Amino acid sequence: MGNVDYSKYSKLSPFELKDKLIELAQSRTDRMMLNAGRGNPNFLATVPRRAFFQLGLFSATESEFSFSYMPEGLGGFPRSEGLQSRFDHFILENRDKPGVVFLGKAISYVRDQLGLDPDAFLLEMVEGVLGCNYPVPDRMLRVSETIIKEYVLREMGVQGMAKESLDLFAVEGGTAAMAYIFNSLKENKIIEKGDRIAIGTPIFTPYLEIPKLNDYQLEEVLIQADANLGWQYPESELRKLEDPSIKAFFLVNPSNPPSVKMSDEGLEILADIVKKRPDLIILTDDVYGTFADNFKSLFAICPDNTILVYSFSKYFGATGWRLGVIALSNNNILDHKIAALSKKDKKELEERYSSLTTEPANIKFIDRLVADSRNVALNHTAGLSTPQQVQMVLFALFNMMDSRQNYKEAVKSVVRDRDATLYRQLGVDVPQDPNAVDYYTLINLENTSRILYGDEFADWVIKNKNPTELLFRVADETGVVLLPGSGFGVSHPSARASLANLNEYQYAAIGNSLRKFAEETYREYQQVTKKK
């Protein structure tokens, strides 16, 4: 590849560096490019999608009934009178079509298991899939919010908490949640320029990049997970949070890219810290929690201190749908912090939200998130599109109605089999960890070199090889695209591979390519050391 200065790429986000690597990997036509860099799954939930489209067909017909005297192609709002009866007839007439039976069972489940009004649910779904009204309430449709609350509480391992004790804001995926939360924390003077925030690393890169922007200018304190402890946070690292100057702790759990959930011991330590620091804000991004065994979110441990972000993107294979939620306890610390602001700050915020209500001081933080997401002035048009909310509800019901959890076990098996295949072909034992989720894997370049060819070779590689150069060479010579661990806050040289977006034989090819590359590097090492 010539004399290339790879250090210039070190400041790029790994997701921007990815484009350079893909360009190299695609530069030759005699091989297949294997992109294991991005975590877009190549599996997806089909039943709730079929149900969505069948519901759409039923709802379009309902709309046409309202304006049946008009020319074809013009419809009106669906009628609530007799809607359930017509829907039952639709289910009976179309029960042989995939997705239709699921819709009928969903109505029964909502009524009999969740105790909700089936008529209100059906009307909300029919109107929602048609997208014929603005989202009302703008934060989330009423029945939909209740259903998603149930899903979130179950999947996040929250016990003993009533659905009425939390609020949800339906958002355009986890990325929108991040943007909205950072912005509203700043706008409401909860976090200000120069404040110190802790970030659990390794972590999804934007959590490292956003605080440095001129908009925020926050000082980052890294809480570093230890590879030698199975990527858990050492107690000494977590205890940094006892420093009262640290305003908040942001983390992804299970982590990205180590793909490991926080251990029970870590959760207990953090709960103890919150007892000592009841003012500590926690933001936990739990998108991979549904891939973990017996997952428990920090929201289950200290709900009043925690902002929970959950996305439907990965588990249901729905990255293009942009579906996520922000969850907050009714007694959350953010509302208390706003109430404790100075008179000057309170007055300024009351002016900011004065167009929304005659009592702007009483607006909850989660509703401020909604308003801020549309620059306050456009609050009346805020909210996730209603068809998106309908698909979100169908995803959640599909998971909750699956008493044997067949779908969950299937997707977990898919990523774990791929992980085993990659490491088998690489010639390294698969890391065994009961807390591992295996959505991603971090290939430790130093440890792999040490296992394959010994300590001296590993020491030589670390001393003489730039990890970024290795990624470029792997892309150029093998067509395999991996991302640098350093871009996620990993302290040692490593490469992140997604285990979600290729097929198993392709992960075998990646393992073979990496093993071949290691062999070639070892021969180079032998030649160099012989000359000496």
Write a brief structural summary:
This protein is an alpha/beta fold and 532 residues long. The chain contains 20 helices and 12 strands.
How widely separated are the two ends? 25 Å
**CATH domain fold name of the largest domain:** Aspartate Aminotransferase, domain 2
Quickly count the domains. Answer: 3
Total strands: 12
Radius of gyration: 25 Å
Write the layout of secondary structure elements.
Blueprint: H1 14-25, E1 34-35, H2 47-66, H3 83-93, H4 100-112, H5 118-130, H6 142-155, E2 166-171, H7 173-187, E3 196-201, H8 206-209, E4 219-224, H9 235-238, E5 246-252, H10 264-276, E6 281-285, H11 298-301, E7 306-311, E8 324-329, H12 333-339, H13 343-352, H14 365-372, H15 386-401, H16 406-426, E9 440-444, H17 445-453, H18 455-464, H19 467-478, E10 480-481, E11 483-484, E12 494-498, H20 504-531
Parallel strand pairs: 1-10, 3-4, 3-5, 5-6, 6-7
Antiparallel strand pairs: 2-8, 7-8, 9-12, 11-12
Describe the protein.
Helix 1 packs parallel to helix 19, helix 6 (142-155) packs across helix 15 (386-401) and helix 17 packs antiparallel against helix 18 (455-464). The protein folds into 3 domains: 6-30 and 406-531, Aspartate Aminotransferase, domain 1, CATH 3.90.1150.10; 47-133, Histone, subunit A, CATH 1.10.20.110; 142-399, Type I PLP-dependent aspartate aminotransferase-like (Major domain) (Aspartate Aminotransferase, domain 2), CATH 3.40.640.10. By secondary structure, it is of the alpha/beta class. The strands form 3 sheets. The chain has a 7-stranded mixed sheet with strand order 2-8-7-6-5-3-4, with helices on both faces. Helices cover 46% and strands 11% of the residues. It is globular and about 90 Å long. The longest helix is centred in the C-terminal third of the chain and has 28 residues, at 504-531. The mean pLDDT is 92. It is built from 20 helices and 12 strands. Its cofactor is pyridoxal 5'-phosphate. It comes from Acinetobacter kyonggiensis. It holds the Pfam family Aminotran_1_2.
